[in-house]
Specification:
About 10% of the residues lie in helices and about 40% in strands. By secondary structure, the chain is mainly β. The strands form three sheets. Strands 5-6-7-8 form a four-stranded antiparallel β-sheet, with no helix packed on it. It is globular and about 45 Å long.
Length: about 110
């Protein structure tokens, strides 16, 4: 079965589930984190200063709470998508296709 006995205790090994907006709910092991979502490339790269390039390439928010992230379904459809995840609970609150606007969460909304 799906259970293991360790020192007389029974535990179940259950992977977290992420909802791929293209394929539906799948085990977390099929996905890879791909960074912060909605990071805009400089409009005029030739006029961008080294400090602006540094900010674009390396500096990201380190939000405690709800954070917009980019994920890739590497062991599935291989597509990128975005997710809103609460970094304090590791809970996915919403997922949405790349290119779609970030959803607005209602106060108290459950995933």
């Amino acid at each position: 079965g799906d259970d293991m006995t360790i020192s007389g205790l029974t535990t179940w090994l259950v992977a977290a589930v992420i909802h791929c907006p293209y394929c539906g709910p799948r085990p977390e092991l099929e996905f890879a984190y791909a960074g912060q979502a909605h990071v805009a490339r400089p409009a005029d790269p030739s006029a961008t200063t080294p400090d602006q390039w540094t900010e674009f390439l390396y500096l990201r928010d380190n939000t405690r709470g709800i954070h917009a992230e980019r994920w890739r379904h590497v062991r599935g459809c291989a597509r990128f998508f975005n997710a809103l995840r609460d970094t304090t609970t590791d809970q996915f609150l919403a997922t949405y296709r790349a290119g779609e606007p970030m959803p607005v969460l209602q106060v108290g909304q459950k995933p």
